[in-house]
């Protein structure tokens, strides 16, 4: 059983849910946004997934502290974990990194990421060598926890994805569907209104979105598949 933590209704598991269904892997959705508490037990759990959200890991929220404790417990037990955006920041903070506002401002929309060469990149990104355009929506960034290996970088934010053993953390959103992208562009208008060098408009974000998501998924499916291969 994989346990998936959702922090706001519009930021669900997306592509990951499709892959879990295809592989017939059971998963349980913990809806923090609906007031569900963070289960402390890891009995019967083969993996943890932490999704995104507009809040910060530095906000004084009780569930944030609960998730940080759970992440440390799961890492010590060698349970695979996966984080997207806020989820990657939670993993970083729990395992010794820091999360701060980024000097480059908000990175929102479709921006290129590059592979960071090394043993970890060769293991996790053996299907990918060229820059690829992925979806981003964040204003904070993480430092690498001790023992983490960086595997993806962007021009705005060098720290885009890292791995630690069986754990993968991505600042970018590789889980999105086209419908999710459209919904975020409609809901998060205050973010878009702030502008900035790396902050695209709603029309830039949603133009040709089906093709953009198709290309994103060509990158994401093998990477997420590698993570799922480690699930017992």
Short description:
The protein has one domain: 3-Layer(aba) Sandwich (Rossmann fold), CATH 3.40.50.880. The chain is 34% helix and 23% strand.
Question: Can you put this structure into words, describing what you see?
Answer:
The N and C termini lie close together (9 Å). This protein is an alpha/beta fold and 232 residues long. It has eight helices and eleven strands. Strands 2-1-3-4-11-10-9-6-7 form a nine-stranded mixed sheet. A two-stranded antiparallel sheet has the order 5-8. Helix 1 crosses helix 8. The protein has one domain: 3-Layer(aba) Sandwich (Rossmann fold), CATH 3.40.50.880. It has helices at 15-22, 62-76, 86-94, 119-124, 178-187, 189-193, 202-206, 209-229; strands at 2-6, 27-31, 47-50, 81-84, 99-101, 107-115, 132-138, 140-142, 149-153, 161-164, 167-170. Helix 2 links the parallel strand 3 and strand 4 (81-84).
Give the topology, please.
Blueprint: E1 2-6, H1 15-22, E2 27-31, E3 47-50, H2 62-76, E4 81-84, H3 86-94, E5 99-101, E6 107-115, H4 119-124, E7 132-138, E8 140-142, E9 149-153, E10 161-164, E11 167-170, H5 178-187, H6 189-193, H7 202-206, H8 209-229
Parallel strand pairs: 1-2, 1-3, 3-4, 4-11
Antiparallel strand pairs: 5-8, 6-7, 6-9, 9-10, 10-11
Helix pairs in contact: 1-8, 2-3
């Amino acid at each position: 059983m994989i346990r998936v933590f959702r922090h706001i209704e519009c930021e669900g598991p997306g592509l990951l849910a499709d892959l879990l269904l295809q592989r017939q892997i059971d998963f349980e959705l913990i809806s923090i946004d609906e007031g569900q508490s963070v289960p402390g037990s890891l009995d019967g759990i083969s993996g943890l997934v932490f999704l995104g959200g507009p809040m910060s890991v530095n906000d004084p929220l009780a569930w944030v502290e609960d998730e940080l404790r759970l992440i440390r417990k799961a890492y010590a037990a060698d349970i695979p974990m996966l984080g997207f955006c806020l989820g990657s920041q939670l993993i970083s903070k729990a395992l010794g990194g820091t999360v701060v506002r980024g000097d480059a401002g908000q990175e929102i929309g479709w921006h290129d990421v590059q592979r960071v060469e090394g043993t970890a990149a060769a293991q996790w990104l053996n299907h990918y060598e060229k820059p690829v355009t992925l979806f981003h929506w964040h204003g904070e960034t993480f430092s690498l926890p001790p023992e983490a290996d960086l595997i993806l970088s962007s021009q705005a934010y060098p720290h885009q994805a890292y791995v630690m053993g069986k754990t993968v953390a991505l600042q970018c959103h590789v889980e999105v569907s086209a419908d999710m992208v459209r919904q975020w562009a409609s809901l998060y208008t205050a973010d878009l209104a702030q502008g900035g060098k790396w902050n695209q408009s709603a029309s830039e974000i949603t133009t040709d979105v089906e093709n953009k998501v198709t290309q994103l998924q060509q990158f994401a499916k093998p990477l997420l598949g590698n993570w799922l291969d480690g699930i017992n």
